[in-house]
Amino acid sequence: MELLGQRWMLRVIWELAPGPLGFLELRRRMDNCSSSMLSVRLQTLQDAGIIVKRPDKSYELTARGGELSRALEPLWAWSERWSRS
Fold first, then answer.
1. Are 62 and 52 in contact (CB under 8 A)?
2. Are 4 and 44 in contact (CB under 8 A)?
3. Which residues fall within 8 angstroms of residue 65, CB to CB, at 6 or more apart?
4. Distance CA 40, CA 84 (A)
5. Greatest Cα-to-Cα distance within the chain, rounded to the nearest angstrom
6. What is the structure's pLDDT at 80?
7. Above pLDDT 70, what percent of the chain?
8. Which pairs count as long-range contacts for 61-64, CB under 8 Å and 24+ apart, including other chains?
9. How far apart are the C-alpha atoms of 52 and 65, rounded to whole Å?
10. How does DSSP classify residue 3?
């Protein structure tokens, strides 16, 4: 849980949930996150076994990361529902 409390971690998982993305695309989607911070977060998630860097240099969720993403879906749905009000 400590890992998820770090800034940008949930957002990276959210962005990778639909499928693999390269660093530049992730950076574009996370416009308030610096490149250096994104690099640190990606490495931390790799070290934790949540994501993997593919041979084509894109990042994707591992089986562990996919399970985590599915567990977080209700939280994201709640956030979407209540952020509109």
1. yes
2. no
3. 13, 16, 45, 49, 50, 51
4. 31
5. 43
6. 86
7. 99
8. 61/13, 61/16, 61/17
9. 9
10. G
